[in-house]
Amino acid sequence: MDPRTTSRRSFLTFAAGLPVAGATLAACGSSGPTSTSSSAAAGGDSAAAGSGATYWTLTGQPQEDIRKATVARFNTANASTKITQTLFQNDAYKQKIKTALGAGQGPTILWGWGGGGLKSWVDAGQVDDLTSWFGENADVKDKLFPAAFGAATVNGKIYAMPAETVTPIVLFYNKKVFEKVGAQPPQSWGDILDLVPKFNAAKIAPFSLGGQSRWTNMMWLEFLFDRIGGPEVFQAVFDGEKDAWSNPAAIQALTEMQKLIKANGFIKGFSSITADSNADQALLYTGKAAMMVHGAWTYGGMKGSGGDFVTGGNLGYMNFPGVDGGKGDPSDSVGNPAQYLSISSKATDAEKETAKKFFKTAVLDADEQKAWIGAGNIPIVQGADSLIGSGEDADWLKFQYSIASGAKSFAQSWDQALSPTAAEVLLDNIAKLFQLSISPEQFATNLNATIGQ
Amino acid sequence: MSTLAPPVVKGTRSANSGGRSGSLGWLVLPALLFFVTFGVVPLFGVLFLSFTRWDGIGAIHPDGLNAWRSVLGDPQLLHSLGVTFLIMILSWLVQTPASLLLGTFLAGHQRYRGFLAVLYFIPLLLSSAAIAITWKALLDPNFGLGAGLGLSFLQQDWLGKDALAVGVVVFIVSWQFIPFHSLIYQGGVRQIPRSIYEAAEIDGAGRWRQFVSITLPQLKYTIITSSTLMVVGSLTFFDLIFVLTAGGPGDATRVLALDMYKRGFMANLMGPASAIAVILVLVGLGIALGLRRLGGTDQTDSMLEGA
């Protein structure tokens, strides 16, 4: 073999491995360590050129139009300091904002979910402390629901402006299907278990569930934990108490959950249905499933896509019922107490001023409140119920307002309250729990290992 | 591919034999430069990151071997490796015979075969994400093909049962890539000199005998090339599985690439994710090398020379 052949051959061997290396690295390319951090400064400087600010938020109707309109109103009133708004699809945004912050290319105003995600931004020094600003602008703070500030607070300091709407998780049901089967909406967990065979016998799935999205399964556990053991059970996890997941109430909740799954309480194939495609909502309004535990935000989707399902009065809703003998208060709720706007610490002073002016004058102004009410949502403003009026969504809005204002405890969704690292382990194990591939005890052991992360 | 390469090399060698310099080393420069910039440099970056603790947005802290310890001590790694190899082996077993037969069939010059070749080629033109979304919709147990046509045997929980989900992934991967490998085999079969078949016919060999005794052995290096592409390519299945099952149900289809993504970009653990990336590169290089060895030591010689 002559040397040239050898070298060509080894090069080919090398090249054969190239697709792997290339693809692997492409996946990690955006996280290149040194080059990105050096470009951070450059990104900050170039953004300083204009005196306006940038604002990243999410797409999706009807929220998208309301977000755009608020910015448009601000820009008309402040022609010299305009805000440039960029909208992203929900899951894409989570990755995009992380990469952009790591690279120092983030916007002035960051839209977020508060809680553990906000804490990771705070720990990385990416967002500004707004405590003193809220102190100086007490009117802004007093205008909003006090409960909304919990998930904006990290280590006793406020790092985000609560905005938009409060969205509790509720139990939806299809009144037509209940009539057909001759059943009554459940008043307790025992009723739920009793309804399961009734609906299955009528070839209707008791519950719709988009299980592939995982956080959809999580909402069930949030309620069962609360109803059985009260809000303290998850609070102990959040506070990092050792072995908090092994609390007997937690084990009981997990066992009850698997009981419902084993009894075929959920639609066939739930573990391959995603919530993003709204297939879970479709199952409810087409009558293939009788009930669904889901966020209040799905109301708009069902109204838009379900024909006369909502307008014809076929959609029933209620707070998740209590568990017999449970310690939790049945008025408690879980969900998103608000959405959150933070200011990047890498922005220039002029940009920060624009952002604060936006918070003070445009966010949740009278027009935006009306728009949210019109879309069937409750803006997190004190006395927003006075705007409800008597439109076709009035009952739904009053129901939501009563939950939001009446809940003794309004817990933030677990995956948003916890750090992203712990949330991923949680979601992963929830998927396995619903697949019945792990027992409640294994679930507790796996999650106890993440406490404090 | 490797069967085509030898004549080219011979050609350049003879054309260059009268030149001043016999070295053609500079020819690799553009590719090498590209490879070093986008392959080797990031590779070292990932290797460096695998010894650190980093959440993707904050500062990078050196962390010794902790990331490696957490990855190697996690049963999830073995599971993901297992799933990766299972999907690799199953999709090889399905794709190789099917594309070999299809490729041989398409190598004929009949007009209807040319038409069929164009039809078979269509899945290759679609992006993996589009394919995944389409199949996901078709297989939906409540709104999919089975429910729509009222065919109960199609109304399985295709993506919700562990074994079925793996089967579906293998099926869709095969559906997507068989056309590509058929194309490689078609080219390989057309390279086989007609004279060999004529000689065999005179000796009284039937069609099947010709296929087993001439076509298959002549395609040895085409098979190796195609297998390398299949096997190494299946290490990086990500987009299809991510959209189709997101690794589920549970973790039944969580291949190594998906595990890496979940750790790095969803759980913010860039250190362990980088360690998995390094493992992926090593496994890929190992397999590619192994497959090259399988071809014997004289790979650069063409089978044609024996004809």
Terminal Cα span of chain A:
57 Å
What's the CATH C level of the largest domain in chain A? Alpha Beta
What Rg of chain A do the Cα atoms give? 24 Å
Structural class of chain B, please? mainly alpha
Q: Number of helix segments of chain A?
A: 20
Largest interface, C-beta within 8 A: A-B, 61 and 73 residues
The overall strand count of chain A is: 14
**How many β-strands of chain B, per DSSP?**
2
Q: CATH superfamily assignment of the largest domain in chain A? A: Periplasmic binding protein-like II
> Distance between the terminal alpha carbons of chain B, to the nearest Å?
20 Å
Describe the 3D structure.
- The complex is a heterodimer of chains A (453) and B (307).
- Chain A is an alpha/beta fold.
- Helix content of chain A is 50%, strand content 14%.
- Chain A has helices at 3-29, 33-47, 63-77, 90-102, 115-123, 131-136, 138-143, 175-181, 189-201, 215-229, 232-238, 248-262, 279-285, 298-305, 349-361, 366-374, 394-406, 414-417, 420-434, 440-448; strands spanning 53-58, 83-88, 109-112, 153-154, 157-158, 161-163, 165-174, 205-208, 289-295, 315-318, 333-336, 339-343, 378-379, 410-412.
- In chain A, strands 7, 8, 9, 10, 11, 13 and 14 form a seven-stranded mixed β-sheet that branches.
- Chain A starts with a helix and ends in a 5-residue tail after the last helix.
- Mean pLDDT of chain A is 84; it is low at 1-49.
- With 307 residues, chain B is mainly alpha-helical.
- Chain B has two domains: 40-73 and 264-296, no CATH class; 82-254, Orthogonal Bundle (MetI-like fold).
- The two termini of chain B are 20 Å apart.
- At the A-B interface, helix 1, helix 4, helix 5, helix 13 and helix 19 of A face helix 2, helix 11, helix 13 and helix 14 of B.
